[in-house]
DNA sequence: GCTAAGATATTGTTCAACAATCCTCAAGAG
DNA sequence: CTCTTGAGGATTGTTGAACAATATCTTAGC
């Protein structure tokens, strides 16, 4: 047993949440889930803690745990952190290792290839990898894991998005432009472009959320 | 009962760790601690998970939890994140609210007053508040809590520092200089100064750690 | 001195029970 | 009719004991 039971349960729940089987706002009942997954309440609670740590669920005392509902304010907040971490990566790009730099270009290429195949799900994944690679230029394990958590959180908002294509297509060329700026060492321009890029993406998500809410 | 039992247990353990009662590397035995604090093993394990989340302890499968031992690599990593979050705050200072800006100056003043009183413990606390206020200029709740966790982690390293005065005194005037730059709207210079400031502080900690290890 | 098998201690997980808290909903006062 | 109040039911919070799984320590054998 390489992984603890609690971790396996957390993996299962994470898949269901990200797959849409457990929509935001759903309460995760200890008794029902424990019976279904064949684990005790204590172990299930241990799994809940892991998901709380990833911000995929929230825990309200004496109320239980619920699948996280992302408010517009959360999206704004997340993009503030992303701007801090990703621009820090761009500023550190000069001193980053070749592997970290290659990961940026690699992600852009894969996104373009997926777009050509019409696989917009994969475009979305590649886009996330691209931004994780940007933050990864910072060369910090803590930044990497923080970025992973942020993007997992953001995925909760993507579930309410109607068309992945509408959201990801406009950013394909901007991703490539950013990667090129980095390859050419134009870090100042890259940082400026990244800042407006993130502002635009945030605004697009917020508009879509408001639209879906009405 | 406003807080759960697990949270109260986590609070007392956190106090002991930060107070030095539980030095880094100490194993937290479930049976011994549970008996001493009068809580069941299950509740204690729940408290452990909270502390793991704060990175104050590490959990090794089938081995138990241990008070975190900060390696030099951790210090380097932490300062990379601090640089990202604090410089992001400085860059956002122009649009920050008056309360957030006042918190920066306030922390500097309190540090100076404590130094005049010779209370170097309090100088250290005020210094942490100063840097938390810098990151707070970013206006993001997630950045604020991330910063809190980072500083709590760093405090583990401070325990091995022999003299708080030796570490904090040289930064008093630099803190004031930074605050003045921010008040005058010289954000570019403030960011540059902050970057070298953090590099110097990191180097000082690393040197002290290496010295203590030999 | 080294390796391997067994003994011991600790953690991982389950279970059942009870306490504490929150939510629902109906009854009553204004 | 609205608002408060309280009882009831459902869910979570916590406990203690038991057993399983794993790591560490001890010891026997070479």
- CATH topology term of the largest domain in chain A: Four Helix Bundle (Hemerythrin (Met), subunit A)
Average the pLDDT over all residues of chain A and give the rounded result.
93
> Which strand order does the major sheet of chain A show?
1-3-2
**Large-scale geometry of chain A:** globular
* Count of individual domains of chain A: 2
Unreliably modeled segments of chain A: none
Number of DSSP-assigned strands of chain A: 3
Specify the CATH homologous superfamily of the largest domain in chain A.
GntR ligand-binding domain-like
Structural class of chain A: mainly alpha
In whole angstroms, how far apart are the ends of chain A?
48 Å
Q: β content of chain A, as a range?
A: under 5%
The CATH class of the largest domain in chain A: Mainly Alpha
Helix percentage range of chain A? over 70%
Query: What is the N-to-C succession of helices and strands of chain A?
Result: HEHHEEHHHHHH
Oligomer: homodimer
The main sheet of chain A comes to: 3 strands, antiparallel
Separate helix tally of chain A: 9
Description:
Chain A has nine helices and three strands; from the N terminus they run αβααββαααααα. Chain A is mainly α and 214 residues long. The first copy, chain A, has two domains: 5-67, Winged helix-like DNA-binding domain superfamily/Winged helix DNA-binding domain (Arc Repressor Mutant, subunit A); 72-213, Four Helix Bundle (Hemerythrin (Met), subunit A) (Up-down Bundle). Chain A has a three-stranded antiparallel β-sheet with strand order 1-3-2. In chain A, strand 2 and strand 3 (64-67) form a beta hairpin. In chain A, helix 5 (98-117) packs antiparallel against helix 6 (120-136). In chain A, 36% of the residues are buried. The mean pLDDT of chain A is 93. The A-B interface holds A 4, 42, 45-46, 49, 53, 61, 77-78, 80-81, 83-85, 87-88, 92, 138-143, 146, 150 and B 4, 42, 45-46, 49-50, 53, 61, 77-78, 80-81, 83-85, 87-88, 92, 138-143, 146, 150. The first copy, chain A, binds a DNA duplex (30 and 30 nucleotides) through residues 1, 4-6, 29-31, 39-43, 45-46, 61-64.
